TrEMBL record:
An example Gene Ontology molecular-function term: fatty-acyl-CoA binding
Stored InterPro entries: Acyl-CoA-binding_protein, Acyl-CoA-binding_sf, ClpP/crotonase-like_dom_sf, ECH/Chromodomain_protein, Enoyl-CoA_hydra/iso, Enoyl-CoA_hydra_C, FERM/acyl-CoA-bd_prot_sf
Superkingdom, natural source: Eukaryota
Family: In the C-terminal section; belongs to the enoyl-CoA hydratase/isomerase family.
Protein species of origin: Rousettus aegyptiacus (Egyptian fruit bat)
Location of the region described as Disordered in the Swiss-Prot/TrEMBL record: 121-141
EC number(s) on file: 5.3.3.8
Pfam families: ACBP, ECH_1
Subcellular location per the Swiss-Prot or TrEMBL entry: Mitochondrion; Peroxisome matrix
Gene3D superfamilies: 1.20.80.10, 2-enoyl-CoA Hydratase, Chain A, domain 1, Lyase 2-enoyl-coa Hydratase, Chain A, domain 2
Protein name, per record: Enoyl-CoA delta isomerase 2
Length: 392
């Protein structure tokens, strides 16, 4: 995926003279002079921009370039390039046109512009509020809405629904849209024999930049992804159709109900991968299943059957695989008839007692993981996974 992004965004891969305008985020690091309050938002926008699926076009790139330069360096004070130097002149013109616009305003405008680009690219692949029949989503994350239920389906069965960086972004956008649509409940499920095999282990190869930049943008993406589940305002249900691994298991602690096929298993092999728990599981799992059982999963990577996960409180109910889909969707259709506002409010009053705590846990888990991602243990584990496969 990032290979594709690289091809889209990087100057050398583009053709016409104006296409060689690359995003400032490809070239520069964010200035340390930016104010703290805005810095995080600004950095997030820089990352978000790299994850956009659609090329926003040269005019928009010029605007972003100009705002980026203004936000970091202030008014344009470099000599005007010659008329034959078309690209640099276009860039200079765009920057110079911002005159004395304050850095803070430029930063804010940059963030607003990226946000509007992200939501417009999301709206083309997502369920519109009020939709009552199936809508097309992207290839790997399909969003549909019917009978008061918005369904977000992981649809990468040949890779056991492993989550790519693009899919994280798409799930975030799908959840944001679902939080505002008129459905009563939202469901996450998988297509094929797996629910999800967790993080796509090639994500770190495909994230752009050097290791430090990968770790930084991976951390921001993970934190934003988990935050969406913490903040999701209406009942959220997991329909676990098969085995679940890694982050697809840990975030289950943030769902309101988890229904599983008896073929499902629950596996968090973090330490074997040189990693550490995420998805708020270092807090939710001990709370849900007690410290002893949580440690067996999160430290020693014990894989649970659906029955065990249910006995330990991670799963709400287990159904035989042969009748799983019918039984669960009948149940969900009944649940979708609850008064929507009462459903939301009831969820929120339960969640709000610990929302702040969950965000703090998320931030700390990401901080620790960012260190892990730079460890030899992690790099060896990822290399082993792919080199074993290569030998098959
Ligand atoms: C932005 C960063 C956020 C980071 C968040 C932190 C999250 C951490 C985690 O989620 S840790 C968990 C990571 N997941 C794994 O370790 C699972 C790895 N996969 C496997 O162990 C196995 O593939 C399996 C047990 C899931 C399934 O085994 P099997 O039934 O034998 O199928 P295959 O192994 O042949 O798989 C088919 C096909 O899918 C590819 N694949 C499966 N899982 C992943 C994955 N997680 N990442 C990348 N690719 C995966 C596998 O390579 C095969 O592809 P191929 O046919 O070889 O092209």
């Amino acid at each position: 995926m990032a290979k594709m992004l690289g091809a889209r965004w990087c100057p050398s891969a583009l053709r016409s003279p104006l296409q060689v305008i690359s995003f400032p985020a490809c070239q520069l690091h964010v200035s340390r002079r930016a104010k703290n309050a805005d810095q995080k938002e600004f950095e997030n926008a820089v990352t978000q921009l790299k994850l956009l699926k659609k090329d926003p076009g040269n005019e928009m790139k010029l605007k972003l370039y100009a705002l980026y330069k203004q936000a970091n360096e202030g008014p344009c004070n470099i000599p005007k390039p010659g008329v034959l130097n078309l690209i640099n002149k276009a860039k200079w013109d765009a920057w110079n046109a911002l005159g004395n616009l304050p850095k803070e305003t430029a930063r804010q405008n940059y963030v607003d512009l990226v946000t509007s680009l992200s939501s417009s690219s999301a709206s083309s692949s997502q369920v519109k509020p009020g939709a009552d029949k199936e809508q097309q989503g992207s290839e790997n994350v399909v969003v549909t809405s019917e009978d008061g239920i918005t369904k977000i389906m992981l649809n990468r069965p040949t890779k056991k629904n492993a989550i790519t960086t693009q899919m994280y972004q798409e799930i975030i956008l799908a959840l944001k849209a679902a939080s505002k649509d008129d459905s009563t409940i939202t469901v996450l499920t998988g297509n094929g024999d797996y629910y999800c095999s967790g993080n796509d282990l090639s994500n770190f190869n495909t994230l752009p930049g050097e290791i430090e930049e990968k770790v930084k943008s991976g951390g921001i993406l993970l934190r934003d992804f988990v935050a969406c589940f913490i903040d999701f305002p209406k009942p959220l249900i997991a329909v676990v159709n098969g085995p679940a691994v890694g982050i697809s298991v840990t975030i289950l602690g943030l769902f309101d109900a988890v229904y599983a096929s008896d073929k499902a298993t629950f596996h968090t092999p973090f330490t074997h991968l040189g990693q550490s728990p995420e998805g708020c599981s270092s807090y939710t799992f001990p709370k849900i299943m007690g410290l002893a059982k949580a440690k067996e999963m999160l430290i020693f990577g014990k894989k649970l059957t659906a029955g065990e996960a249910c006995a330990q409180g991670l799963v709400t109910e287990v159904f035989p695989d042969s009748t799983f889909q019918t039984e669960v969707w009948t149940r969900l259709k009944a649940y979708s008839k609850i008064p929507p506002n009462a459903g939301r409010i009831s969820k929120q009053i339960i969640r709000n007692w610990e929302k702040e705590k969950l965000h703090a846990v998320n931030a700390e888990e990401v901080r620790v993981l960012q260190e892990r991602w730079q460890s030899e243990e992690f790099l060896n584990a990822v290399m082993n996974f792919f080199s074993k496969r290569a030998k098959l």
